[in-house]
């Protein structure tokens, strides 16, 4: 401990660099602050490292990334090494700006505008980063294979998934088209895209509601399958195109309005029974307490 007192700024700086290699960013930040207090020949680099270590510990705050981009842009350091990663300051600052935008858009509620914003951001990654590796993902997530192009494909897929989930509410066929687009982008980045494919199939499926007879499109969104005893006498003949029950005879299709009306009504009935039972229990409790008190006083 006593030796620590005699460390000079550059020794503290070197210790900070070693701590970065071990991914101990909080400790590294402390060393760089100490190095700056004692004066180090690596003053600019120390300040830069503090900014990036902060990002590593707080990687979901758009304002932090904007702040980092500004500071890195105004730094005198043009290139540096962070852990094992070689970084160009200007390019890294740009990545920080794009990341800030990504975090901000991701935080918005789903809407067609959010989908459009994601597509525009994808274009920015494609044009400004292109085939170059994303240093931010390498440093923050340990991903060495992502590039501007791969990030753009992920964002395109996310954009169409967002738009699909919004469109399906009023136009299930349109929703299915968007999910098909999302699937194509997922395939390009090497994902199975299975989730998008299943949604696309579900969104384009049409059935007839067993209860109200309405034709309804969009499985899981506008209609659901509910268990029911469907005796053979109710079985639809093979010529029926729009089925109101699956082949298994154990369930029926219900449109969301019918399904939610029944669910809500049954919730109300359950609630009424629950309230009545609680009231009864409370009354019984009071009666018992009165009886116990009466026994006590009579002694
Ligand atoms: Zn219905």
Give a written overview of the molecule.
With 299 residues, the chain is mainly α. Among the domains are: 1-107, Serine Threonine Protein Phosphatase 5, Tetratricopeptide repeat (Alpha Horseshoe); 108-204, no CATH class. It contains 11 helices and 6 strands. It has helices at residues 9-21, 25-38, 43-57, 62-73, 89-106, 112-128, 135-141, 148-167, 172-188, 194-203, 256-298, and strands at residues 79-82, 85-88, 206-208, 215-217, 223-227, 251-255. The strands form 3 sheets. It has a two-stranded antiparallel sheet with strand order 1-2. β1 and β2 form a beta hairpin. The longest helix has 43 residues, at 256-298. It is flat, with a radius of gyration of 31 Å. It starts with 8 loop residues before the first helix and ends with a helix. The relative contact order is 0.05. Zinc ion (ZN) binds at residues 209, 211-212, 214, 254-255, 257-258.
Specify Rg, calculated over alpha carbons: 31 Å
The assigned structural class equals: mainly alpha
Largest sheet: 2 strands, antiparallel
Bound molecules: zinc ion
Average pLDDT taken over every residue = 93
Distance between the termini: 75 Å
Strand line-up in the sheet with most strands: 1-2
Tally of DSSP β-strands: 6
* C-alpha geometry: flat
Helix content: 55-70%
**Secondary-structure arrangement, i.e. CATH architecture of the domain at 1-107:** Alpha Horseshoe
Order of helices and strands: HHHHEEHHHHHHEEEEH
